[in-house]
Amino acid sequence: EVQLVQSGGEVKKPGESLRISCQASGYTFSAKWIGWVRQKPGKGLEWMGIIYPGDSDTRYSPSLEGQVTISADKSITTAFLHWKTLKASDTAMYYCAVVGHPINFGVSGTFDFWGPGTQVTVSS
Amino acid sequence: SYELTQPPSVSVSPGQTANITCSADKLGDSFTYWFQQRPGQSPVLVIFQDNKRPSGIPERFSGSISGKTATLTITGTQPLDEADYYCQAWDSNSLVFGGGTKLTVL
Question: Taking CB atoms and an 8 Å cutoff, what residues of chain A touch B98?
């Protein structure tokens, strides 16, 4: 059974850095894409990016590339989402999710399993 | 940028059929997926590859696609189906979500 355990909620100030985590179990971590989805308060789902831990191939949403870094550590089956400089507009719930079946970019692939989410609040 | 357009809200009476649409110029170039998100919970996949149901999803959920519009149909809607629903597709290398539809069962 796929399980995703996300790190706890964070309250940070603008300009600070942050890394949140998502520890996966129940499947071969290096063999499935894992990604991040943002949901701002009262808003919809927004895809941020995904990583293939097997070779660290990483794809980002064009609207978010350069603002965050996605990484993964196979040794601890954990994916990370990192900000160097937080902004108030980064306040959101962040979900990690696993793509259960092979992705065919531009054609098929989706998040079959979702974590519980990490709430990030950025406020001065 | 590629946009998937959903109605902001849909209302249905218990036991009736709810249809939630998702449209885009290039819909059909990739598969469409549907998620249910109840308040305070993580999204749950209810339809994959246009019209397939994951295990554990009730048969009253179905998906279809016609031209540039995908439709999520909930037959015999129950109060517990009240939630936000999101469609998802691909645009080149980017995964895209629709804006979401709030389904009210009243």
Answer: 44
Which residue in chain A has the smallest CA separation from B90? A106
Q: Tens digits of per-residue pLDDT, B15-47? A: 999 999 999 988 888 899 999 999 999 999 999
pLDDT in tens, A47-65: 999 999 999 999 999 999 8
Interchain CB distance below 8 Å, A107 and B37: no
The single-letter code of the amino acid at B105 is: V
Which residues, at least 6 apart from A87, have a Cβ–Cβ distance to it below 8 Å? A14, A122
Strands (E), B2-100: 9-12, 18-23, 33-37, 44-47, 61-66, 69-74, 83-91, 94-97
The token duo for B62 is 């179905």
Burial of B1 (0-12, 13-18, 19+ CB in 10 A): exposed
Cβ within 8 Å, pair B90-A111: no
Minimal C-alpha gap between A28 and chain B (Å) = 20
pLDDT digits (tens, 9 = 90+) for B60-99: 999 999 999 999 999 999 999 999 999 999 988 899 999 9
From the CB of residue A45, how many other CB atoms can be counted at a distance below 10 Å? 24
CB-closest option in B29, B45, B94 to A47: B94
In whole angstroms, what is the distance from residue A46 CA to residue A62 CA?
Answer: 12
